[in-house]
Each structure stands twice: as C-alpha cells, then as structure tokens.
C-alpha cells in the first residue's frame, strides 16, 4: 500500500515552476507563494479572525474542488500511461521515431500536470481542515480576545486564507 508523501507533492510542485532549461521562474514563485502569503497577511491584519460564514464557503469550495481535481488527476494519469505505452511501442518495435520527441514532451507535461493537480488537491484539503477548525473557535468575542484562543485563531485564519 502506498502512502501519500505530502512533502514530495510540495517539492514536485515546486520543481514544475521552471522553464525547459530548468531555470526557476520567479514569476511562478511570486504567483504561487508570495501573493497568497501577502494577501493572507493583509486579510488577517484587516479583518482579523476568519468569520464562520466565510469558513463555511471555504469548506464547500474546498470539498467540491477536491472532488473535481481527483477525477482530473485520474484522467491525466491515464493519458500519461497511454503516452508511456506509445513510447515503449516505438522503442521496442523499431517503429518510426519521428513522433518520439513530441511524445516525450507530452509525457513530461502530463507528469508536471499531475504534480500540479496533486498540489491543488493538497491545498484544497488543507483549506477544508483549517476552515473546519474555525468552527470550533468560541463564538463569544470576550473568549476570542483571550490570548490562548486569539493566537491560534489568527494562525488558523492565516493558513486557511493562504490555502
């Protein structure tokens, strides 16, 4: 039985943020990491702890997104397997190799797409988890002002917004 390697999903997603030469693209890193972290910080600073109504919307959005992406990753995986089969047929069968370059490119694209969709599934799951945690925070504003509720509430809100 295989286990999901969360760190592996994150690292493989990070490695897809490069061009054909392997150079990391700062624009991709900015869009996928810096912008969400900055927006989360601004939202937490401006609005404070996430409201349960927003958390409810995030739970619904995350659950629907996860389900849709799970079916997408299965379709992508099937296409990748078909491409691998075509490549092995060409190599083993001594067939014309004129399509081999495009098939290898397609295989790489499918692999990167799989990594990116797996990362999106992971972030959707994280979004749902942190949004559900928001529900367990006290409703009373006086209780929320106590440091042992306030600090974790801001951290969970920040992580949910970041997801």
TrEMBL record:
Keywords: Membrane, Transmembrane, Transmembrane helix. It comes from the Bacteria. The chain crosses the membrane at residues 25-48, 54-77, 117-137. This is Uncharacterized protein. It comes from Salmonella enteritidis.
């Amino acid at each position: 039985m295989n286990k999901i390697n969360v760190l592996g999903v994150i690292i493989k997603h990070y490695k897809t943020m490069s061009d054909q030469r392997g150079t990391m693209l700062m624009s991709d890193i900015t869009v996928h990491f810096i912008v969400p972290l900055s927006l989360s910080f601004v939202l937490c600073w401006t609005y404070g702890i996430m409201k349960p109504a927003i958390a409810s919307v995030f739970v619904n959005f995350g659950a629907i997104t996860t389900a849709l992406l799970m079916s997408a990753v299965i379709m992508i995986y099937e296409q990748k397997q078909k491409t691998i089969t075509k490549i092995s047929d060409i190599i083993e069968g001594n067939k014309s190799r004129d399509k081999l370059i495009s098939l290898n490119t397609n295989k790489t694209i499918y692999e990167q797409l799989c990594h990116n969709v797996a990362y999106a599934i992971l972030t959707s799951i994280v979004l749902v988890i942190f949004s559900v945690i928001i529900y367990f925070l006290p409703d009373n504003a006086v209780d929320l002002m106590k440091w042992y509720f306030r600090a974790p509430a801001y951290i969970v809100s920040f992580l949910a917004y970041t997801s």
